[in-house]
Design a protein that fits this description.
44% helix, alpha/beta, 11-stranded mixed β-sheet, two-stranded antiparallel sheet
Length: 606
C-alpha cells in the first residue's frame, strides 16, 4: 500500500481518508512525497505502479502528440464523487479574493489613520506558528454585509435573477441545498475516450448554431421597445462620473426596464453593469462586492460550472493543452521534473500532464509540484492548497508517477527563492495562467507587487516560464474609459455564452452572476486597492516581462497547429486561435480575450 507523508504547520482537523495518512513533522512544513509504505520516512521514492488497463490501451510511444485533454473532466468527476466535503467547502478562488479585497480595503483605512504604525496584527495558526498580515479574519466581510443591508436599497437582490443569489444565500444557512445526488453528473463529467463520440456530437452541434437566441421577437403578441442598452450604459457611466445623480438615476431606471439576468446576452450584461453603476453611484461598491463574496457557493457547484465552461469555451482547456505539451516536450529524457505553479487552485491543469508522463517509454520522471496560491481566510490559510496536493498525489499513485508536493499559501510578492525547494539537475518550469491580473501593480502600490513576482520568477531561473494572461484594456484610472473597455470585453463573453449555452442553464447563471458579474462589479464600482481585477494587454505584459529580465521564446509550431485544429473541430465556429509576436491568442468574433506565451531568463541559453 502506498502512503503520503505529509507535514504542515496547519494540520487538518481530520486525517485524510484513503490510501494515505497524514504525519505532522517539522521542519518540512507543507511538503510531502508519494512513497512505498515499507520505505524509510526520509526516503524519496521512485516507485512504479501498474497503469490501469483503460489507460494502457490508449498508450502510444509517449510523445507529446498524445491527447489527454479530456483527463480534466475525469479529474473533476473524481473530485465530485469521492470528496463529499466539497458540498460544504466554499469556492477556493472566491475565498482568496475575499481576503485580498478586505485586506486591501483595511490597509487603505489604516494608511489614513494616525496609529497606522500599530495596525499590523498577527493571528495564531498553530502551536509555534503564525500567519501575519494586515488582516486575516473573515469578520470584516460579514460586517460589510451588514453595512450594505442598512444602506442604500440593493436592487441586485430585487431583480428576477434572485435565483443564483438566493441559492448562494441559502448555502450560508445550510449546506444541504443540493437536492440531486452527485452521481447523476457522472455521464456528463466523464467526457473522455470512453464516450468520446457522444461528447464530440454535443460539441459540434454548436458550430454555426446560436443556442441562446430566442426563436421569435414577439411574446404573446406584444412587441417590445427596442433600445440601445450599450449606448444607455455609456451615457449612464458619464453621468455617474460627472456626479449627475438625476440623469444617472433616470438612465438606470430605463436600463432596468429593458434588462434581465435571464434575457439575451445584451440584457444580461446590462443588468449586471447597471448593478455596478448603482453601487458606484451610492458609494457602496466594496460593500456590495464583499457581500457577494460572503454568499458562498460550494466548491462542488464551482466544479460543475467549470465543467460546463471548459466544454463550451476552449480558452482554459487549450491553454492547459499547449502548456502541458510544451512541458512534456521540454522534459524528454529528464529524470526529475519540477513545476512551480503560481495560482494552482484545484490543480485542474495537471492530470492531463500526469497521464502523459505515465506513458513515457522507460517510465515517468519524478514529478515535483510546488503549488502556490493566496491564503484562505481563517486560522488555516494553507489548508486548501495542501489539499490540492493530496488530490494530485492520488492521481499520480493511480498512474504510477513518483510525486512530491510543496504547498505555499501567502502573498506571492513575499515569497523567497529559498521557499521553493529547487534541486540540482531537475527540469524546472514556472507556470502561471490567468492569475497575475489579481496581483497589484504600481498604480496601487508604488513598489509594484506585480513586478516583484516577476523578479522572483527570474531569480528562480526556470528552464521555461509559461505565462497566460487575460487580454484586458480596462486597468486604467479614468473611469469612463475603463467602463467602456470593460463593456466591450464583457459583451464578447456574454455573447459567447449566449451562443454556446442554454439560457436557463444553472451553471451559466452561476458563471454570469457569481464570476463575471462580480468581476464587473469590482472593475466598475471599486477604486484603488479595492479593485482586485487589474488585467493588462499581452503587449503590456511583454514589456513588463522584458523589464524583469526575460526573453520570449517561440511557441512549438506543431502544438499550436494541434490547438487550432482542436478548436476548429470541437468548438463554435466563432472561436479563434491566432499568433502574434510569439503569443498564442484566443478570442471570440475577432476580439482577443486570452493570450499565452513562453519565456526564459535573458541570460539562459536556449
Amino acid at each position: 500500500m502506498d502512503t503520503l507523508e505529509f507535514s504542515s504547520c496547519f494540520p487538518p482537523a481530520n486525517d485524510f481518508q484513503g490510501n494515505c495518512r497524514l504525519v505532522a513533522a517539522f521542519p518540512d512544513e507543507n511538503h510531502f512525497k508519494v512513497k512505498p509504505e515499507v520505505a524509510a520516512v526520509n526516503h524519496s521514492s521512485t516507485f512504479q505502479k501498474s497503469i490501469p488497463a483503460d489507460v494502457k490501451q490508449d498508450s502510444t510511444d509517449g510523445s507529446h502528440d498524445t491527447d489527454h485533454s479530456d483527463a480534466i473532466l475525469k479529474f473533476i468527476s473524481q473530485m465530485l464523487m469521492e470528496e463529499e466535503d466539497l458540498e460544504n467547502m466554499p469556492c477556493m478562488l472566491q475565498d482568496c479574493l475575499a481576503l485580498q479585497a478586505t485586506e486591501r480595503s483595511l490597509y487603505d483605512v489604516l494608511l489614513n489613520n494616525d496609529n497606522y504604525a500599530d495596525s499590523t496584527t498577527t493571528c495564531d495558526c498553530a502551536a509555534g506558528e503564525s500567519y501575519s498580515g494586515k488582516y486575516s479574519s473573515s469578520s470584516s466581510v460579514s460586517s460589510t454585509s451588514e453595512v450594505e443591508s442598512r444602506g442604500k436599497k440593493n436592487h441586485f437582490r430585487e431583480e428576477t435573477d434572485s435565483f443564483e443569489i438566493d441559492r448562494c444565500s441559502k448555502h450560508v444557512e445550510s449546506c444541504d441545498f443540493e437536492s440531486e445526488p452527485i452521481e447523476m453528473y457522472d455521464n456528463v463529467l466523464l467526457c473522455g475516450r470512453s464516450d468520446g463520440d457522444s461528447c464530440e456530437k454535443s460539441k459540434k452541434v454548436w458550430r454555426g448554431h446560436n443556442r441562446g437566441r430566442p426563436k421569435g421577437s414577439k411574446k404573446h403578441g406584444i412587441t417590445r421597445e427596442v433600445v440601445d442598452l450599450t449606448g444607455l450604459l455609456i451615457q449612464c457611466a458619464q453621468a455617474v462620473a460627472n456626479h449627475d445623480l438625476r440623469t444617472a438615476n433616470e438612465l438606470l431606471i430605463r436600463i432596468r426596464q429593458h434588462s434581465s439576468s435571464h434575457g439575451d446576452s445584451t440584457e444580461r450584461l446590462a443588468h449586471y453593469f447597471a448593478t455596478a453603476l448603482e453601487a458606484r453611484l451610492a458609494g457602496t461598491g466594496m460593500e456590495l462586492y464583499a457581500a457577494l463574496l460572503t454568499r458562498r457557493i460550494s466548491a462542488a457547484e464551482i466544479l460543475k460550472a467549470y465543467k460546463t465552461l471548459i466544454n463550451a469555451c476552449p480558452f482554459r482547456k487549450m491553454s492547459n493543452m499547449l502548456a502541458n505539451r510544451t512541458i512534456n516536450k521540454l522534459a524528454v529524457g529528464a529524470s526529475s521534473l519540477h513545476i512551480v505553479d503560481f495560482g494552482i487552485l484545484y490543480g485542474f491543469q495537471w492530470p492531463c500532464l500526469i497521464r502523459a508522463l505515465s506513458e513515457r517509454p522507460g517510465g515517468p520522471p519524478k514529478l515535483h509540484v510546488t503549488g502556490i496560491d493566496l491564503p484562505q481566510p481563517g486560522f488555516r490559510p494553507a489548508d486548501r492548497v495542501a489539499e490540492t496536493g493530496r488530490r494530485l498525489a492520488k492521481y499520480c499513485t493511480r498512474f504510477g508517477v513518483p510525486f512530491e508536493y510543496t504547498s505555499i499559501a501567502q502573498k506571492w510578492e513575499t515569497i523567497k527563492v529559498e521557499d521553493i525547494k529547487i534541486e540540482e539537475g531537475e527540469v524546472l518550469v514556472v507556470n502561471s495562467l490567468y492569475r497575475l491580473q489579481n496581483v497589484s501593480d504600481e498604480t496601487v502600490i508604488t513598489t509594484s507587487p506585480r513586478d516583484a513576482v516577476l523578479r522572483l520568477i527570474r531569480k528562480i531561473n526556470p528552464d521555461m516560464f509559461i505565462f497566460g494572461v487575460v487580454n484586458g484594456t480596462y486597468n486604467i484610472p479614468y473611469f469612463v474609459t475603463r467602463f467602456r473597455e470593460a463593456l466591450f470585453q464583457y459583451s464578447s463573453l456574454f455573447d459567447m455564452f449566449d451562443a454556446t449555452m442554454d439560457r436557463e442553464d444553472e451553471n451559466r447563471l452561476l458563471l454570469e452572476g457569481q464570476l463575471y458579474g462580480k468581476e464587473a462589479l469590482n472593475i466598475i464600482a471599486c477604486e484603488g486597492s479595492e479593485r482586485v481585477e487589474q488585467p493588462e494587454t499581452y503587449k503590456q505584459w511583454k514589456v513588463r516581462n522584458k523589464r524583469a529580465g526575460f526573453r520570449q521564446v517561440p511557441l512549438d509550431a506543431e502544438i499550436v497547429k494541434c490547438v487550432k485544429n482542436k478548436v476548429k473541430m470541437e468548438y463554435h465556429v466563432d472561436f479563434s486561435v491566432d499568433e502574434d509576436g510569439k503569443w498564442m491568442l484566443q478570442g471570440w468574433k475577432g476580439r482577443v480575450l486570452h493570450a499565452l506565451s513562453c519565456w526564459q531568463p535573458a541570460n539562459k541559453s536556449s
